[in-house]
């Protein structure tokens, strides 16, 4: 991939080999996957993947089910070590857990025995923050995600959207430079999902974190992102194309989807990925038949 070059709006760009990072102009990216491969025994989940997330950039990865999207996210988090290649965080090779990253999972990771406020400040407590200071900051973050006055509720007393807001506050309260998100809104109903997507965009605009976002929803990816990267069907997943999303910001995700440019981008990206989706579907059908 050629860093520092902007393709024409919406154009497909095929990733090229990543060279020496020092040869590229500008500051180092927040995340750099340099020829990353991940193997589980004889199975190759990801093969020679090269991609980056710039500082303050919102990048989404899309692709068929089982194509290795979450595997790449776990590599970025330091939860999974590449079999080959390297993952760099702001120009430094990652060793162990990525201390610069916060991770928002697909499933709720809230502790059911703790209140919303107690869940939000969990990371601060483990970091040794004094309790009163942690609670003060926790209440500030609950207010930022629209949950002021709900700090004493337990997870079972909250809706799915409220729990996601708590999880978002829990992730951002420690001020990570990078936010990793694995289909965080997929279990929500359509209306709540739109509200949460707009909530995320408002927070991203304010704090300008570097975001790597995994989703199956192409509309969601286009609505939120600066760039969308397409992965091939597994096994041996690798990036096959990327698109720069030139939709104006700030965005309302419901309104932006009605614009001609959004529709144009949707068709361009779908044309680039539908063959991979079909490959994955046919492979799964063969497995069912065996």
Task: Explain how this protein is built.
This protein is α/β, with parallel strands linked by helices. The protein has a domain of 188 residues: P-loop containing nucleotide triphosphate hydrolases (Rossmann fold, 3-Layer(aba) Sandwich). It contains nine helices and ten strands. The strands form two sheets. A six-stranded mixed sheet has the order 6-7-8-3-9-10, sandwiched between helices. β7, α6 and β8 form a beta-alpha-beta unit. The longest helix has 30 residues. The protein is globular and about 55 Å long. 38% of the residues are buried. The N terminus is likely disordered. Pfam families: ABC_tran.
Quick take:
With about 290 residues, the protein is an alpha/beta fold. The chain contains nine helices and ten strands.
Question: What key phrases describe this protein's structure?
Answer:
290 residues; 4-stranded antiparallel β-sheet; 9 helices; 6-stranded mixed β-sheet; alpha/beta; Rossmann fold
Sheet with most strands: strand arrangement: 6-7-8-3-9-10
User: What is the C-alpha radius of gyration, as a whole number of Å?
Assistant: 19 Å
- End-to-end distance, in Å? 39 Å
- By CATH reckoning, the class of the domain at 27-100 and 176-289 would read Alpha Beta
pLDDT < 50 stretches:
1-23
CATH superfamily of the domain at 27-100 and 176-289, by name, is: P-loop containing nucleotide triphosphate hydrolases
Sheet with most strands: 6 strands, mixed
What is the count of β-strands?
Answer: 10
| Averaged pLDDT | 86
Q: What structural class should be given to the helix and strand makeup? A: alpha/beta
> What's the assembly state of these chains?
single chain
- H/E element sequence: EEEHEEEHHHHEHEHEEHH
GO molecular function, one term: ATP binding
Family: Belongs to the ABC transporter superfamily.
Protein name: ABC transporter ATP-binding protein
Domain ABC transporter: 31-258
